Amino acid sequence: MNMRTLLTTSAVALLLAATSPSLAQTSITGGSGGSAAAGGTSASTVGTGGTSTSATGRTGSSIAAGGSAAAASGKTQTGVNMNKGNGPVLNSNARAQAHDGGTFSRSHTRTKVKAGEEVGSTTKTMSHVPGSKPTMSRTTTTAR
């Protein structure tokens, strides 16, 4: 093997190494949450998720959600649903509400995890006391 062949072989190997993608572990996390309160009522929800892809291309995902509601002398309702969507998608839906006469507070959080791609979450809250304007908010996060 002469010097010229050795340099050509080394140059080709270096070029291939520079153009081939290197696999690295990647992780994506995100979530949202919020609460509303009016009079003697309050409601809160939260949703969070994550997805990670290893250097070898294996993907794992997780999702969690929760909610709580309280009323001094009224009714409360909370609920959390989680399901695996189409393909590698996880969804969660958390709701909480409290009513005390015409006064109420509500919170709703939806979270979606697309394995290895994206985590998105939206929280909407609303509270109202009769005779006044409702208070509303919306928080949205997306991580890629």
Textual characterization of the structure:
The chain is elongated, with a radius of gyration of 25 Å. The chain is mainly beta and 144 residues long. It has one helix spanning 3-19; strands spanning 26-38, 41-53, 59-71, 75-84, 89-100, 103-114, 118-128, 135-143. The protein has a five-stranded antiparallel beta sheet with strand order 4-5-6-7-8, with no helix packed on it. The protein has a three-stranded antiparallel beta sheet with strand order 1-2-3, with no helix packed on it. A hairpin with a 5-residue loop joins strand 2 (41-53) and strand 3 (59-71). The model is unreliable at 2-20 (pLDDT under 50). It starts with a helix and ends with a strand.
**Helical/strand content category:** mainly beta
Main beta-sheet annotation = 5 strands, antiparallel
Distance between the termini: 49 Å
User: Considering DSSP H and I runs of 4 or more, what fraction of the residues is helical?
Assistant: 10-25%
Order of helices and strands: HEEEEEEEE
Averaged pLDDT, please? 87
Q: Helix count, per DSSP?
A: 1
The best one-word shape is elongated
Strand content: over 45%
Strand segment tally: 8
Poorly predicted regions = 2-20
Task: Give, in spatial order, the strands making up the sheet with the most strands.
Answer: 4-5-6-7-8
Radius of gyration: 25 Å
